[in-house]
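Bug: token stream looks shifted between consecutive jobs. Job 1:
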Amino acid sequence: ELHIAIQKLFGLGNYKDYEFGYEDIMSEDVVNFGYIPTRRFCSTHKDMSRIYIDSLIKKTRSLYYEYDYSSEWCFNIHLIKIVEYDKYYATIIDYSGKYNIVENCGGPWGLEYFLNIIDNPPEKLSKHDKNMLKKFEKFNMEKTQEQLKNIFDMV
């Protein structure tokens, strides 16, 4: 469920490999778990169906999430505070930035490149850059929140 929430929050397509992981404080190993169809599970991979992230993050206080290994979309998830919550779905409390991530734009480096073009458009752009810029959508908090609610209605 956290994977799907992240996909919706960042406007990703949910068609690439991903994994979650955390640092095992006792052994200082990174333990990975997740859906990785193109990789064989190594000894540090866990069966994701047996892991409940809410109990895990209370113990580790942070997780990482990687999506699309070739583009290296990496997210660090930190537990700041545990609060009472009466909803069954993720809620957006705050955000920064104007645009969703565009897959296949070249990863974080490509995203930075295109956001700079949006803010400071050059006189001439390549056909590739023009086509890529058409894919950028402004983040819409209300729309995304409704999508999150609908996802968890189905779960």
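Job 2, same session, no restart:
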Amino acid sequence: ILRLVDRYKIKRRKINRYSVNSNYFKYQNAVMAYILGFIVSDGCVSDKNLSFGLKRSDEEILRYIKDQISYTGPVRHYRKKNGKKYSVLCVCDRTIVSDLNLYNVIRRKTGFEKFPLKIKKKFYRDFLRGVFDGDGCIQYVYKKRRSFSFFAGL
């Protein structure tokens, strides 16, 4: 049958091997806001994929996100040419990507990040915590007087 489908160029629908809670970003809560912030700072969004690539020592956050969105696929492990190990989580789901777009999380977002105003105010700090965990740092400077600096990738 597949040969006939290919011969007559009939489009086949791809079936995802793994399941995910496609409605995860439709309902706001503190954990969702945190994950959204992490995606803004350290995630990658394409037309139909949401993915993360982190150093192996940060794999725990990928497993946390995977559990929260009920994704059954694996966290994959790779080694770069320089020998550094990293972990990748890739979720293929158009509904999730579409919902992320509603929060101003768009594909090729680097440099175009916007604060997602559709998040309820009570979840702002959870969102910012996610942004900070993804790309933030604290710097303590002591010269003539003490000062703290906070940076985050938003």
